[in-house]
What does this fold into?
Amino acid sequence: MLLRFHHCRSLLKPISARRFVSTQIDRKPLLVLGLESSADDSCASIVSSTREILSNVVLKQNKIHESFGGIHPLHAQEAHQRNLPLAIKLALEEAKVKIDDLDAIAFTRGPGMYGCLSVCAGAAKALAAASGKPLIGVHHMQAHALTPFLTASPTSPAPVFPFLTLLLSGGHTLLLLCTSPNQFRILATTHDESIGQSFDKAARDLEIPWELGKGSPGAALESFAFTPLPDSPTPSSTHQEVTNYDFPIPFRNQLSFSYAGLRSALTRMITTNPVETMSLLQKQSIAKGFMVAAFKQVEEKLAMGLRKIEQEEGIQVEGLVVSGGVASNTYLRTQLRAKLDQLSPNRSIPLHFPPPALCTDNAAMIAWVGIGRLERGRIDELEVMQKSKWGIEDCEADFEDREEKQ
It folds into this structure.
């Protein structure tokens, strides 16, 4: 029995990645299957080391969650269990590859909803065990931060280290200094809820249909706030209309985000003036004022972070990467470009946004980080488990600790 146990343990050890990669690189580009199920999208993608996205499947659950006003963890997990096998099948068919053609299986290890993460973790481990392919558990926010390297082109060059990174999503509000693909320093994070979560809840409180944002409550809030209404006296799509609703900007002069107070102010407005009694224009002005205040906070913290890094620490920042679901917001993109030009009038700081389809959760970014990890020989064992809480500063700490001891 003891011999049988040791034999089973040996099957859990990863393939020697360095030997595997050296032969593969000489022969053909690497192909990695990425899996993502950290929240409410079931995603599978196949990406090449030549930066070609061969497939990128995203199966959404918005019809399930809209009635709850947000993501219901149990229903999300069950939907992933139904959808992820189909997403994997579609990704392989679209890319015209088989499991045997892959060089590794990458999956979102964390952070995210524990039950949801368990679905892509279990699928990835089963595929790796059955095929003998290397297994790579990827940090979700590291993948968002490195997406511009995947989408780089002659007209949109890759970022240059060191750069600042704004990760703005339903789960995170982070301002980071990135000095390498796996080295991040947190400059500012949120004290309470994230910017994306505040947008989702504002859309719910203002009773804005998710269909306006193609199933995303945050995108629905943006669409409602900045789309001209019929007979509106001022075209709001220009983003120039002055709102009559002022919202607070907390933690002035501190490198910290907070969105709970912003949403409390919205709750007080709605308590005084219920949504069902508002005119459409009044409701739009409130939505717009909410989003403008949320983004002013981002601009203010960016200015503080840039000043800290360049003036206090003497590090020249070579660009700003903005990723996560909120990064697809067109108003934010305009405001950040103007803010960077204001902060650095004598030097144009490059601003990098992934394409909108790759700002929200997807598996292509997971596969891309998997390729980098495979090339560096940082492979996980089959025992690896998902992590619902996982700081980005420790995204590859397990391997760094192990290499220091060798």
About this structure: Residues 1-25, 234-243 have pLDDT under 50 and may be disordered. The first strand starts at residue 31 and ends at 36. Strands lie at 31-36, 41-48, 53-60, 104-110, 135-139, 163-168, 173-180, 183-188, 320-323, 351-352. Residues 62 and 215 are 5 Å apart (CA to CA).
